[in-house]
Amino acid sequence: MAEKIYNGIPASGGIAIGPAFLYHPQGLSAPRRNLRAEEIKAELERYQESLKKTRVQISELEGKMKAKLGEEHAAIFQAHQVVLDDPLFMEEIPQSIQTRRLNAEFLLFEALEKFKTVMASLDDSYFRERGGDIQDVGNRLVKNLTGAERDQLKKLDREVIVIANDLAPSDTVSMQTDTVKGFCTDVAGRTSHVAIVARSLGLPAVLGMQTLTSEVQEGDMVIVDGNKGLVVVNPLPATLKQYQRLKDSYEAFQKSLEELRGLPATTPDGHQVTLAANIEIPQELDEIFKHGAEGIGLFRTEFLFLNREEIPTEEEQYLAYKELATKTGVSPAIIRTLDLGGDKFLSHLNVLNESNPFLGLRAIRLCLKRPDIFKAQLRAILRAAAHGPIKVMFPMISTLMEIRESKVLLNECIQQLKREGQVFRSGIEVGAMIEIPSAAVVADILIQELDFLSIGTNDLIQYTLAVDRVNEAVAYLYDPLNPAILRLVQMTVDACHNAGKWVGMCGEMAGDPQFVPLLLGMGLDEFSVSVSVIPEVKKVIRMMPFEKSKEIAKAALQMKTSDEVLKLIRDNVPSELRAILF
Ligand code: PEP
Ligand code: MG
User: From the CB of 469, is ligand 1 less than 6 Å away?
Assistant: First the structure.
């Protein structure tokens, strides 16, 4: 097999080597596999087996439906049994397996895609409905063939590299690092949630691979180079050896950073900032102090709401936040209230079918529409705050009114808890995220009614530059050093300092070691970054004189392009740091 090298977006550093595991979350993508002549018989049998299995499943569903809603509603499944006899399933697919020598799920998937296009062009509603039935049955068959299940990633019993078209947050939260060693997806960019999870878990990842799922076969040996954004499929022995060496030296470098664990994030000329961790999933909590974090600058709470049918109760949330408070002890932890919408959906909550979910009912907007959900979370946070220095932060703030409304609800919760005689802490610090350009522009107004601001560059860049953060086709425009972004960051920092308040950054920009010298000089008080990059960011801070970084920041704000800014950083950091960063 020939070695092939593919380019993608480097989303999480490190090198992983292992066999490919093709993951199809909904069972609706089916990678192509060429069959050898001697495999055809087995493939036909496998297809017949899945037809049988599908028949049995449909009759079970029919039985259940009959028992629950009566004969009339069960008719749909009788229709599905008939659909299964369609020549498409009974004749065309087995024939194609023999003539085209390809795997059944790929052929089915391909046939269904063609069928979908034809059906969509028909006006006749009868045919469209029948088309829907064929699609349903076909999808079920594909699922049975691929063995797709929601918790496939949880059940892995061997070390693999996950290759997927896309991974939803619900998929990534179930990944186990003892089996998943790295991953690649066809879609998504550097600040998509899947990239963030990769960095949180310290898993090498390359995203935006476009067609990798159709190029790789299950079990192919794969190298993921998350530092360079390269994926090598079926490497030659010499390449494998070279990468094994690179992997060892990268891991040794990471280990050498461990000695920084107990040291503060202080520049050589004595300027100290807070280096905190972003937490995406609770498993990471055990890791933060090992990596030398001084607290938590962003505790995302979505994990509690994903992968389940019902909304978590106040009590369940309280226990999770209390665990956070207990584990972080005297170190501060900022809990961000729910940020659903955008690319994180809950089928039972995000009821509207929005055509622009990133511009829709997301985060604070959804919470203010559903005070029942919002107040349960606020009550849980206030109660947990009795156990440690917890702060609360609202995401996606675009107006002062949203801050005021949120604080009214927070106050209502305080009054209720008081009346109920519950244990809680009322004097909790309240902050907001600056993720929307208009909010950065009026940061001086917003900060007057808050204790702190935290800049969420993942969204700030997306909304300022009109670049979808999860769309790999426009990833080349997603540019943290764009002069517009630098101005908005500086405006936010200045607004906070003029008001005598502190300001942090919890977007991924803060965790990119190359940007740290600049951000230091811009005056950030807190850097909150993925757990796995804490040591490297600390190393940069401890090597970068603050006075020099202020000069860089001042000059950067006069630059016209991001290339000029990057060159400025490169030319002005101390040479020992340049050797590490560039
Ligand atoms: C951000 O937008 O920068 C951020 C930290 O929030 P999230 O990535 O969860 O949208
Ligand atoms: Mg955000």
Answer: no
Upper half-sphere CA count for residue 315 (Cβ side, 13 Å): 0
Catalytic residues: 193, 506
Strand partners, 182: 161
CA distance 109 to 146: 11
Which element (helix H / strand E) includes 63? Answer: helix 40-69
d(CA 475, CA 461): 11
Nearest CA to ligand 1 atom 8: 458
- What ligand has the least distance to the C-alpha of 456? 1
All residues at 6 or more sequence positions from 556 whose CB lies less than 8 Å from its CB, including other chains: 481, 486, 518, 521, 565, 568, 569
337, 413 contact by CB (below 8 A): no
**Helix, strand or coil for residue 220?**
coil
Q: Is the CB of 300 under 6 A from ligand 1?
A: yes
The number of C-alpha atoms within 13 Å of 112 and in the hemisphere containing its C-beta is 22
pLDDT in tens, 276-333: 999 987 778 878 888 889 999 999 999 898 877 788 999 999 999 999 999 998 899 9
Structure tokens at 579: 């050797």
Does 402 sit in the ligand 1 pocket, CB within 6 Å? no
Tens of pLDDT along 536-547?
Answer: 999 999 999 999
**Ligand 2 being an ion, which residues bring their Cβ within 5 A of it?**
435, 456, 459
The 8-class DSSP code of residue 474 comes to G
Q: Tokens 């200045």 map to which residue?
A: 494
Cα→Cα distances 343→168, 240, 502, 520, Å: 8, 36, 30, 31
Q: Could you tell me the strand order of the sheet in which 221-225 lies?
A: 4-7, 230-233, 221-225, 15-23, 160-164, 180-185, 205-207, 9-12
